[in-house]
């Protein structure tokens, strides 16, 4: 698959979020000063939705326990879990915000 436009640019406010159900995923689009990112709308700690979380730089904070996730690769920063959330390739185009759900940016989980 390739990038697919899933939202118009004005649906994702600066410093804010927008959720799109797409191909069986709840895709959380986040616009930061560093660009637009696409991650799954679910915390890997206790499965809280992230859409209401605060956005700072390239991070979103889980609204339940405050864990911070790097929007560039889905990796958590903190002690609550080391499990990343899904992060996908995302780009802003003339047609809107495009995501490639087949191109994951989060690191693969190591099998133990
Ligand atoms: S549910 Fe997100 S940090 Fe606990």
CATH homologous superfamily - what is it?
Answer: Rieske [2Fe-2S] iron-sulphur domain
The tally of beta strands, per DSSP, is 10
Mean pLDDT across every amino acid position: 96
Helix content: under 10%
Low-confidence stretches: none
Whole-number tally of structural domains: 1
Question: Which properties best describe this structure?
Answer:
112 residues; mainly beta; Rieske Iron-sulfur Protein; six-stranded antiparallel beta sheet; globular; binds FE2/S2 (inorganic) cluster
Can you describe what's shown?
The chain starts with a strand and ends in an 8-residue tail after the last strand. It has no helices and ten strands. By secondary structure, it is mainly beta. It has strands spanning 4-7, 17-22, 25-32, 35-40, 55-56, 59-61, 68-70, 76-77, 87-93, 96-104. The chain has one domain (4-104): Rieske Iron-sulfur Protein. Strands 1-10-9-4-3-2 form a six-stranded antiparallel beta sheet, with no helix packed on it. The protein is globular, with a radius of gyration of 13 Å. Helices cover 0% and strands 45% of the residues. FE2/S2 (inorganic) cluster (FES) binds next to loops.
Q: Care to give the gist of this entry?
A:
Helix content is 0%, strand content 45%.
């Amino acid at each position: 698959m390739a990038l697919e436009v899933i939202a118009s640019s004005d649906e994702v406010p600066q410093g804010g979020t927008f959720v799109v159900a797409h191909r069986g995923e709840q895709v959380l689009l986040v616009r930061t000063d560093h660009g637009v990112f696409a991650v799954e709308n679910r915390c890997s700690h206790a499965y809280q939705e992230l859409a209401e979380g605060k956005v700072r730089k390239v991070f979103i904070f889980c609204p339940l326990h405050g864990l911070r996730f790097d929007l560039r690769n889905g990796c958590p920063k903190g002690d609550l879990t080391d499990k990343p959330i899904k992060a996908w390739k995302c780009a802003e185009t003339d047609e809107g915000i495009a995501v490639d759900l087949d191109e994951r940016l989060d690191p693969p989980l190591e099998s133990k």
